[in-house]
Amino acid sequence: MVHNILYAQSGGVTAVINASACGVIETARRFPQKFGKVFAAQEGILGVLREQLYDLSVEDPAQIAMLRHTPGGAFGSCRMDIGSPDTHPEQYARLVDVFKAHDIGTFFYNGGGGSMLTAAKVARFARAHGLDLTVIGVPKTIDNDLSLTDTSPGFGSVAKYIATSVREVSLDLAAMCGTSTKVFILEVMGRHAGWLAAAAGLAFEGDDTPLLILMAEIEFEPQRFLAALHDKVAQHGWCVVVAAEGLMCNGQFCTLAAESEIFGHEQLGGLAPLLAKLTRDAGYKTHWAVSDYFQRSARHLSSRVDVEQAYACGAAAVSLAAKGKTDVMVAIRRTSDVPYLWTLDAVHLDQVADIELPVPAEYIRADGFGITQAARHYMLPLIQGEDSPPFRDGLPVFAKLKLQYTPAKLPPFEV
What per-residue confidence (pLDDT) applies to 250? Predict the structure, then answer.
């Protein structure tokens, strides 16, 4: 019997998450004997609970195809986990009601470790209660901290953006350092894992470069940092500092803008100006910036490898479901380093749910301020190739979807 598909996006969006959505939707349409309609939930699991489902059967296939080069999250995302069946039985009852009301037989959840936890909870409940529901996780996170996958779709493009930005800004700094700015500080995302900061190391080759990387995995020591900065400026005349927002001082975040109970995701911010004050007080004219949303939405500079992997993960999720697989996340397997070759596999949701993978010690230089050749060897293949969106009148053109709701069949639900 043919049942419908429900797809949803969760967590921080990326430049390529919509490529995964495109992979899901286009591939599902090739299996009419297996799947019925494809729905997308507005704002992830929230949209499922609220029964806010977009009917994608009304969308123009050409616009669906354009999702491949459209950044952001086309259907809206959220930072929310569901509770346990014991403490929040009403949430699970509602999910079952929504799935049954719209004949949902397959649920694809596209996100990171926290999202895989949500998918795992739904899967466990389905198995415990004999529900005929396939649950597949589609990986995504710029933080690259998902376990049991070679990389997380979204990371390669951000790594390319950060390394490119550092290489470009270094030329500006080198030109001005004689009479002006000597230190430029870039704050990048990375709560507990320093992968994005580490990516800055791809901007230059070798260790003897005017670059200091401050990763979340290494405790920040102000005086040691200033000593290293002094050496770099003395040698090169200038220095770029790239710092993960989750930099740790005395066992806690160096700066904390606000706290959040959602997923335990604190909103960090203010690290770059804090570091800038430190360097200015040490006598260096300093400029700083926060890459923030720019780094994860810069589709114009996406890695072709990243785009291809994101699309392939979405397509593979549908293929797994068509083969009867469930309760798994699509995983990328590296089969060769040179040339970089990869394939797709599946790992159980419980093995990746809410698990963060930090930058391995062997990827961090002995002094803690840079990356090793092993890290470069791992990351370089992930930023290869360009996959620019089409441009019109000098600006990128992105998908424009109808986003038409399917009629609700249930009473409203308060989340």
Answer: 87
281 as an active site residue: the answer is no
- Extract the tokens encoding 322: 């068509």
Same CATH topology for 3-141+300-354+387-396 and 155-297: the answer is yes
Q: Where are the domains of the chain?
A: 3-141+300-354+387-396, 155-297
CATH architecture of 155-297: 3-Layer(aba) Sandwich (3.40)
Pick the CATH number of 3-141+300-354+387-396 from 3.90.1150.10, 3.20.20.70, 2.130.10.10, 3.40.50.450: 3.40.50.450
pLDDT digits (tens, 9 = 90+) for 226-281: 999 999 999 999 999 999 999 999 888 887 643 444 344 455 568 999 999 999 99
Tokens of 309: 């992997």
Per the structure block, which two tokens stand in for 93? 């009852």
pLDDT at 252: 87
Query: Catalytic residue among 55, 143, 145, 387, which?
Result: 143
